[in-house]
Design goal:
There is one protein chain. The protein is built from seven helices and no strands. By secondary structure, it is mainly α. Helix 1 (about 5-35) packs across helix 2 and helix 1 (about 5-35) packs across helix 5.
C-alpha cells in the first residue's frame, strides 16, 4: 500500500470517526479479529483495535450512541460531550495508519486527522441542530439511521479500496463544509428571532389634549 492509499485510508477513517467514532473502531476491530480483512504490514499498529477489551468498549459505546443519537435533543447533548473525544479519536486513528518510522508524516497525519474528524463532527452537530427544530421525532431517527448505514458502508469501502475512498472523502469534506455553513445561517436566524421576540413592543400612546 503506497503513500496515496495510506493517506486516503487515514483521511476517510478520520472523517468517519467524526460521525461515529465507536462504530468505526468496532467495525475495524471486528474485521481484524475475525480475519474478515487482511490489512498490510504498514497497519500493524492497528492490531490493538482487535483486542477483545477494545472491541468490548467500542461495542458499549456503539450501543449507547445508537439510541442516544436518535432521541431529539439528547443527540445534541451527546454531540456536545464528544466535541473533544471524536477529534482526538480521529487523530489517533490517522496516526496509527501512517508509517511509524516517519515522524514528520505522523505529526502531519495527527493534525490533519484531528481536523478532519472535527470538521465532520461540527457538520453533524450542526445538521442535528436543524433537524431538532422539527417538532416530530421521526426525521431525527431517519437521519441517525442513515448515518449508521453510510458510516458502515464507507468504512468497508475505505478498507477495501483506499483510492475510491479518497474520492468519497473529498465529497464528505465538501458536504460537511456545506452543513457547517447552513447550520451557521440557521443559528443566526434562530437567534435573530429570539432577540426580536424578546424586545418589548412599542405601544401607541395618545398624547394628552
Amino acid at each position: 500500500m503506497g503513500p496515496v492509499e495510506l493517506f486516503s485510508l487515514a483521511a476517510s477513517t478520520s472523517l468517519l470517526a467524526g460521525w461515529r467514532l465507536y462504530l468505526v473502531t468496532l467495525v475495524t476491530g471486528l474485521a481484524m479479529h475475525f480475519g474478515w480483512i487482511a490489512l498490510p504490514a504498514n497497519l500493524h499498529m492497528l492490531d490493538v483495535l482487535a483486542n477483545p477489551w477494545v472491541i468490548g468498549a467500542a461495542a458499549v459505546g456503539t450501543f449507547a450512541e445508537f439510541f442516544a443519537d436518535k432521541i431529539q435533543f439528547v443527540d445534541s447533548a451527546w454531540d456536545a460531550i464528544h466535541s473533544f473525544i471524536r477529534p482526538l479519536g480521529g487523530a489517533l486513528l490517522s496516526l496509527a495508519i501512517v508509517d511509524s518510522s516517519n515522524t514528520t508524516l505522523q505529526v502531519v497525519s495527527f493534525l490533519l486527522g484531528g481536523g478532519a474528524a472535527l470538521l465532520a463532527h461540527t457538520g453533524k452537530a450542526g445538521a442535528r441542530a436543524m433537524v431538532n427544530a422539527s417538532p416530530e421525532p421521526y426525521s431525527n431517527i431517519a437521519v441517525s439511521a442513515g448515518e449508521d448505514v453510510v458510516t458502515t458502508g464507507l468504512m468497508a469501502l475505505a478498507i477495501a479500496n483506499p483510492v475510491l475512498a479518497a474520492i468519497v472523502a473529498v465529497f464528505i469534506v465538501l458536504g460537511t463544509g456545506w452543513l457547517v455553513y447552513k447550520a451557521r445561517r440557521f443559528m443566526k436566524r434562530v437567534l435573530g428571532s429570539i432577540n426580536t421576540l424578546g424586545q418589548p413592543r412599542m405601544k401607541d400612546v395618545t398624547p394628552p389634549s
